[in-house]
Amino acid sequence: MIGDYFVFDGVAHPFNANLKNAFGRPGEMFINHLYAFHSALTPDGETVLPAEEWMRQWPAADMHEMVYDQSDTDMLVAMPLPLTDLFKDGLSPWEECVELASRDPERTVFWGTVNPLEGRRALDEMERQVGEFNAKAFKFYNVRYDYGKPFPWRMDDEQIAFPIFEKAQELGIDLIGVHKGVPLGPQPIEATQTWDMDGCAAAFPDINFVIFHVGLPFIDETCWQLIRHPNLYASLAATINFCVRAPRMFAEIIGKLLFWCGEDKIIYGSEAPIFHPQWALRAFRDFQIPQDLCDGYGYPQLTDQAKRKILGENLLKLHGMDVAEVTGRLGRPQVHG
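Below the sequence we write its predicted structure tokens.
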């Protein structure tokens, strides 16, 4: 906990960010862009790793130490990346995420991932990840590649996406995340837009869909979708880290989300190891929206109750977990401050 806020980190990736893991220039671009986030958004006074130290394979042990031993995080989602057409192992292999989750199964949740363009193979892989490795949700990427050429697919595609969602429901999964916005490497920006979220949300009302990175730079469009579809949620992953480097920009982002969809539909994610979790947690704990933005745009203030929900309670509920039971079972870890 940080203060009395239970912290459930919605995304950490055990990257294999060694450039030798990349299939050529497109994959190298992707890794370089991730490192640029690390070097540009880590605030003054915090550790910025040299490229040669950050661009490496991050084993599960290192991720566990960073998230649990060095920050006030109580629970974590170990989240893979399925970019097997850009990287030899997908960049964050699901097998490594299983290893991370197995180190502390009471606290770490494994989300699975597949490539929906692979059809039957993807459906079979979903069965394996749920049945053998206890995947609790799935995370998808709408842009795939072959020899550097992008192959986008949409979340409202009845032939590609809908069979995946139907399979998830068959397996008892009602939580699905998708990378939106934040185009990296060779991703065409139009394929990261959120236009397809209306169709999947309406077609599968019993599935909760999480729009990762709040769809930046399409924040306004995302807000209009969040307010209209009760099963759409927004993750602050790769967004909460602006609260130190660009606090007024972050105030506008969180203010818009609170204005349009409210505090119950926003979840926290650290994006470790792109960013160390602790400095952003400290900053968010103390963050207030400037009063002139509240007065000028009608933004609600970021209250203690809102912070508590965003940092942990909302994601616990999305996983069907009782907040009081989980916090009581795990106890109150030492506060790092």
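The first strand starts at residue 8 and ends at 12.
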